[in-house]
Structure formats: C-alpha cells, structure tokens
Amino acid sequence: MTSESDIRRLAERYGPAWNDRDLDAIMSLHTDDTAFRLHLLDAPDIVGREAVREAFAGLIEAWPDIHFATEQLSYGTGFFVHRYVMSGTLACPMPFGALIAYPTGDGISLTGADVITVVAGKVHRKDTYLDIASAQQQLGLLDGPSNPAQVQGRR
Fold first, then answer.
1. Transmembrane stretches, by residue range (predicted)?
2. CA-to-CA distance for 132 and 108, rounded, in angstroms?
3. SS3 at position 133
C-alpha cells in the first residue's frame, strides 16, 4: 500500500507536470494499466497507458496553454482529490455533445476536481469532473440560435 506521504509527493509532482504540459512526465506518474475518464456527456473510460497518453495529448493540443491553479488537495488511503481552477485558450474545435466549440482566441476559466486513485505510488485511475456549463457559456455555446456557427453542421 502507498503511504500518505508517498501520495502527497505524487500529487506535488503531478500538478506541475500538467502545468508544464510535459506528456512524458505526466505519463511517468501513471501505472501501465491506468484509466482516465472525463465525466462529460457519457464519455467512456479510457484504459491503458497508450490510450490515456493519446487522450491527454489531445487535451494538451486542444488547450495548449492549459493551467491548473490548485485550490485544495485532499488525501486518503490510496487516493487524492485535486480541486482547482482550470484556465486555457481553446486552439481547435472541440465537441460538447451535439455542439462544437470553435476557438475564439479568448481564454476561459472554470472549476474542476480530479479524483485520483493511487497504486504502487502511481496514478492508477483519474476521474475528472469539470464545470462544463461554465465552459460552454464562456465558449458561446449557450447563446442559443443567435450563434449558429457553434452548432454542428453550420460552420
């Protein structure tokens, strides 16, 4: 079992790796059978080192200046929870269900939390929860029919 002090050290390395957008450093902190789920409109679990790496690479490509400002880190037996404010600028089209957000050049900021399960001192599972409604609003997706460029198929 991983000690709480080991989990704290992992958390202290994990956040900076993401803020550096260093995919190799991020993945070095994950188990081989790692899993990731972005809890967004029934998104599936992504399982395995290569699949998770590809998903993370896509997020970094979509948000090349992504940054996580920690609000709170909480620890328990075999896990930690990271509550943060995520900020970034969308750089490529991103689907939100039937809607697609297009880059505006404006940065957005939203709250989120990761629940991270730790096995043998590494991230075994990462469940990410984001304030998606805030993201959609900031990206113009909640403006209704007056913003047809944001609706899929009307670009």
1. none
2. 11
3. helix
Judge whether 153 lies within some domain.
Answer: no
* Residues of the domain holding 117: 4-139
Neighbours of 114 (CB within 10 A): 21
All residues at 6 or more sequence positions from 6 whose CB lies less than 8 Å from its CB, including other chains: 118, 121
How many domains does the chain contain in total? Answer: 1
Domain membership flag for residue 107: yes
Tell which residue, 114, 111, 105, has the closest CA to residue 87: 111
Query: How far apart, in whole angstroms, are the C-alpha atoms of residue 49 and residue 43?
Result: 18
Q: What is the pLDDT of residue 77?
A: 92
Residue at 93 is within a domain: yes
Mean pLDDT by 10 residues, the chain (155 residues): 89 96 98 95 92 97 97 95 98 87 95 97 97 92 60 43
Domain of 105, CATH number, reads: 3.10.450.50
Q: What is the pLDDT of residue 155?
A: 41
- What three-state secondary structure class fits 77? coil
Give phi and psi for 90, each to the nearest 5. -65, 130
User: How many CA atoms lie within 13 Å of 67's alpha carbon, on the beta-carbon side?
Assistant: 8
**Does residue 74 contact residue 81 with C-beta atoms inside 8 Å?**
yes
